[in-house]
Input
Amino acid sequence: MSRPNLAANVKELQEIIDGLDAPLRSTFENMHGGFPEATLQRFLKARDDDVTKAAKMIVDCLNWRVNNNIDNILAKPILPKEKFDAIRQSQLIGFCGYCKQGRPVFAIGVGNSTFDQASVDKYVQSHIQINEYRDRIILPDSTSKKGRHVGSCIKILDMTGLRLSAFSRLKTSTAIATVDDLNYPEKTDTYYIVNAPYVFSACWKAVKPMLQERTKRKVQVLRGNGRDELLQVMDFDTLPPFCKTTNGSIDNDPKSDVFSPNHKFHVELYDYIRQKAISSGRTINSLSNEGSLHIKVPTLDEQDQHSETCEVVHAIESVLPSLEASQNPSDENHNDKLTTKIAGIQVST
Output
């Protein structure tokens, strides 16, 4: 998509940032990591190059970072360690490596994430820590290796195990998506959907026509485990285990399970956070007494209706009652013959 006024818009947005108070300018420096123009371009893209809307979005983001002390969140370990492990086992996300263009590849187990081992606050905290570690450690490392700026990632979403009941967890997943949408915009180039069961396919076919083109372009629903399509953008070794097999079997080796708290990425992440906390002069015992970390997440009503999260969640909520009414126990056994009328849209599988 052509952006003819991009340079002028970036300059105007930078002038707005330059006029902000010192704490906001400081957190902007921490956020852009040496690439201020690319960061401003992301916020502009998220608001269709509308400078006024992009300015509001980035100023809101900077205030959010200051008010929630996001610059220091990588020095706040989730304690005890067993709680961190429980979160990792119920909010499935892992780092797989890099695609051929150098972008980090993250796997997310959407269908089998339960979000039932901790408070929403803890899941949000953990997710932000992964975001900040990606932006401060992983992306700069890739930028250094590639010799050019790498500022975004790709995500592979595994829908294995997804059921209608999963939509009851919208509160936690929406909070996490809202954090990404408002404060880490355009950090994900593409969402690859794999192992999609009927319930997702039906919901997606109903929701997709309601979404803006900008949102739809980011989502690619692949056939089966998506292995052949994904090998066009990444090497075999980078594929998550659920995309490597042809017979549905999964390697149970904890070292290859990207979702396991014992996986190299999660071990290094937790050690990094723990060492950051200790280097600040605190002890683990004192950290245990600091209490829970609460991070403000705007409600859907408080968000700009231009928000991708608002758009997707409202669309899902609009079709869900019809989907629930149409679903019966025999549906999943006869998906190839089903034709379900959802929210006035004819969906065939």
About this structure: Strands lie at 93-98, 104-109, 153-158, 188-194, 219-221, 339-342, 345-348. Residues 120-146 form the longest helix (27 residues).
